[in-house]
Amino acid sequence: MAAAKVLGATSPPTLLGEIDGELAFSLGLVMRVVALIRRSRPEIVLTHDPWKRYRIHPDHRVAGEVVVDAISKARDATFWPELGPAWRPTALVLFEAEVVDFRQPMDGFISTKAMALAEHRSQYRSSYGIAADVDPVAHLEERIRAAAGVPDTGIPAEEFKLVTDL
After folding, report:
1. In which region does residue 137 sit, left (phi positive, over 0), alpha (psi from -120 to 50) or beta (all else)?
2. Can you tell me the distance from the alpha carbon of 137 to that of 117, in angstroms, rounded to the nearest whole number?
3. Are the beta carbons of 141 and 111 closer than 8 angstroms?
4. In what order do the strands lie in the sheet with 44-48?
5. Can you state the angle between helices 136-147 and 110-118, rounded to 10 degrees?
6. Helices within 75-150 (DSSP H only)
7. pLDDT digit string (tens) for 133-143?
């Protein structure tokens, strides 16, 4: 919730109550995401690339699979009509993608992204490699810049797979 606030969200994020490290694909979870898509009617949906080879993190792999399956079902009125009218987003954007074909310039947003990530204190040691005596925002800004692709413009960009045939 704190990260969403840093990013300028005007309403709290919807949390599905799954346990970190224990996310498992289930039809019930897909239904909950279908209901969320139909209720919120997003134009763009972002998730992990579920087809990335050698994806070790089970939550990331399963999250991508659940979201992609939910988009397919949310757009089809024959699946669970009691969850609301069908909705088809305009685009699916996959991060940590196996195949990159879309780059979003990050100029001016790196600090904001680092501040939002820094709100996830439970990830400092395991995911971010942040020692107790290190400024987390500065550390994360450095990691973001190092990971960013730099297109012909010289501006750091985050890389994604863009799917519009939904």
Report:
1. alpha
2. 8
3. yes
4. 44-48, 91-95, 157-163, 102-105
5. 130
6. 110-118, 136-147
7. 999 999 999 99
Q: Which domains does the chain have, with CATH numbers?
A: 23-103+158-166 (3.40.50.10320), 107-147 (no CATH)
Is the distance from CB of 164 to CB of 91 less than 8 angstroms? yes
pTM listed for this prediction: 0.89
Structure tokens at 80: 């669970």
Please provide residue 82's backbone torsions phi and psi, each rounded to the nearest 5 degrees. Answer: -65, -10
Rounded to an integer, what distance in angstroms lies between the CA atom of residue 35 and that of residue 37? 6
* Residues 10-38 pLDDT 10s: 999 999 999 988 999 999 999 999 999 99
